[in-house]
Amino acid sequence: MRNPLIIRHFFLVVLSVFLCTSVFAQDKVRLKAEYVKVMNEGVYFDIQATAKVNDENVNVSKIELVIYNLVGDEQVEIGKTITNMQGKSRFALKDINSIKPDSSNTYNIDISFAGNDKFSDASKSISFKNADIEAKLVSIDSVYYVTATLIDKSTDSLVVGESLKVQIQRMFKALPIGEEFNETDEDGTILVPIPEGIPGVDGILAIEVVLSESEEFGTVKAIVNAPIGKPVVDESTFDERTMWSPRSKTPLFLLIFPNLLIFAIWGIIIYLITNLFKITKS
Amino acid sequence: MKNYDKLLNDLAPQKFGKKGVIWTITLIVLIVLGIIAYIDQIIKGQVVTNMNDYALWGVYISNFVFFVATSFVGTVTVAVLRLTKNTWRTPVVRIAEIISVSAIIMAGITITIDMGRPDRLMNLFIHGRMQSPITWDVIIIPTYIMVSLLLLYFPLLPDFGLLSKYYKDKKPTLSKWYGKLSLNWTGSEAQKEIQLKSISIIAILIIPVGFMLQTIDAWLFSTLFRVGWDSTNLGAYFISGASVAGVGALVCVVYVLQKVYKLEDYITDLHFDKLGKFLVLTCLIYLYFNLNEYLIPQLTSKKEATTHINVLLTGQFAPLFWFVIIGGLIIPVIVLLFKKGRKPFPMFIIGLLVVTGSWWKRYLIVTPTLLHPFLPIQGVPEEWRHYFPSLHEWLITIGTLAMSLLIITILVRYVPIVPIVRTAEEREELELNKNTAK
């Protein structure tokens, strides 16, 4: 008699576990985060939330993420953000001074998702040190160069042997220039020549020097606006009277012809209304 | 007055019977429901509609285009028949004028409903650009309303004068109103001369204005680089479609009024026969333009055009598309080619089919194109891929249709639907001709 009872209990336990896992099954959210610092502009975190649903990677949209600054044992909330339809979110800080480093001058950030009906909770931690890139344009023997120095602000020392990218901002994707890897020398500096004849609006080139996704410093970017490009000929019709101009620059034929037509029609209408008065009087 | 006794007895506006009262109350109830839905739409915003980033024009714009099309009846029947001296037009022209006025007023109201907040209408005047067909539309609609009102009003003057005398003892207040509306009409030669001259001017004026209205309505679509709209054919296509919608609506209203007011002596089988032939002509012209509109893109087989047309011919919108083409155009042509088909009752059924087909045709012009943008629909909620009007949209749309019918009903209540003086004059001329022939 004992055996069937055990089997029955075992069956009930298995069924309960199965039902619980079926009813409360939640997919796990994976968070990716990147720290980006743009010199003289600001600091932000690019966050991406994905999940594996039915063996397929999907972007997790409209979830709320809480961002914490970890200082020792203390966890300070610095803000909240919501992912967009692509599961992405950008959380911007006013500047790096908005957060505090730990005793080793390392900044520790924790991005946390509390979970919901569909997805279980998740978190992602990133750590980075503060670094600066000081970039400027120099001219040596009539050739323009970008020189950039990478400085570890946590120790106020120059960073040697890190690879920096130099590129020019374009509409769709930045145009790389110089070597693929420009390693900083013993002065923490790179020197990259800028080719002649690169077009830019009003001849201005926005040259970026980027430390990309460094394990120690994250992504750091400096932008130099250099008036050394080939000026782009302005083909804008901004000052012309076109079909796509604002109302103050309507093509003349569109001002004259339709208005003439409208005034003519309304002139006749007014004449007809005066006829009504004439009928009253006659 | 003696000559007019019988005519006044038959044609003077009459009080509604029981059916008329029920009909009016039903319309008022539908309008009130529409107004409630519209107020809710203003409070909550257009989130109450099923329009979205893709289907940004929905049933409101379809309904607007339908009203604009139906208003064309004033141009096709009144002006064209007048200028071509078709004498049989007399008993039906006023009904056409009434439909025209009602439809164009409702077109103006419907477009305001589509704007969401009605105060945005002012932005079209403050920020409107002459390069935009929307600005032209804002100008041409009030112009057409004005011309349609004048076209209705001028021929009414002698009838108002007559009714003022007719009701002098029976209903003094009504008589006073008719007197004011008649602008002291005495029927003097000077008055007649001004009136006839004015009518001739309006009859000519309404043709270019009507054509401009329909063409601008078409250009609202064809100036956009969208599949199904980007066509040089669209202006003429809209004009021919408007003729179908207008004449179809006219047939329906003429039949109902003939039966309700027992006007068989005035609106005869001959009028239905002529209107039937006219409807066949308009349907055939519209079928020809439909052929151009759908066959050529299908033959040239541009990828996006083929996708769009396949959705209409065999896809999601196929049942509606074939109902519109077969039910709204081909069947009417076949039935109306036979003399028996042009009898009043079959004509009424065909008229209803044509009007229903015309309404859905506008829905097919607007919606499928919007659901086929050039860039793929992605990264948006699934429901944005489809569009079907919400309850709010249906209530408001039905409310506007009811309001249009109520305008017709009110005008029919107070305005002689068959011109009395004109009919008397025609009958006198006929008698005179008979006597001369003897």
Topology, please?
The complex is a heterodimer of chains A (282) and B (438).
Chain A: H1 2-23, E1 27-38, E2 42-53, E3 56-59, E4 64-71, E5 74-82, E6 88-93, E7 106-113, E8 119-120, E9 122-129, E10 131-140, E11 143-152, E12 157-158, E13 163-168, E14 175-176, E15 182-183, E16 189-193, E17 199-200, E18 205-214, E19 218-226, E20 230-231, H2 252-281
Chain B: H1 5-11, H2 18-44, H3 59-70, H4 73-83, H5 90-114, H6 121-127, H7 133-166, H8 172-181, H9 189-222, H10 234-260, H11 269-300, H12 303-313, H13 318-337, H14 344-370, H15 391-414, H16 420-437
Provide a short characterization of the protein structure:
In chain A, about 20% of the residues lie in helices and about 45% in strands.
List keywords for this structure.
heterodimer; A: alpha+beta; Immunoglobulin-like; 4-stranded antiparallel β-sheet; 18% helix; flat; B: 438 residues; mainly alpha; Formate dehydrogenase/DMSO reductase fold; 74% helix
Structural features, described:
- The termini of chain A are far apart.
- In chain A, the strands form four sheets. In chain A, strands 1, 2, 3, 6, 8, 13, 14, 15, 18 and 19 form a ten-stranded mixed beta sheet that branches. In chain A, strands 5-4-7-9 form a four-stranded antiparallel beta sheet, with no helix packed on it.
- Chain A folds into two domains: 104 residues, Immunoglobulin-like; 101 residues, Immunoglobulins (Immunoglobulin-like, Sandwich).
- Chain A is flat.
- In chain A, 21% of the residues are buried.
- By secondary structure, chain A is of the alpha+beta class.
- Chain A has two helices and 20 strands.
- The model of chain A has no long low-confidence stretch (mean pLDDT 90).
- With 438 residues, chain B is mostly helical.
- Chain B has a single domain, classed as Formate dehydrogenase/DMSO reductase fold (Up-down Bundle).
- Chain B is built from 16 helices and no strands.
- In chain B, helix 2 packs antiparallel against helix 15 and helix 5 packs across helix 10.
- The mean pLDDT of chain B is 92.
- Chains A and B meet through helix 2 of A and helix 7 and helix 9 of B.
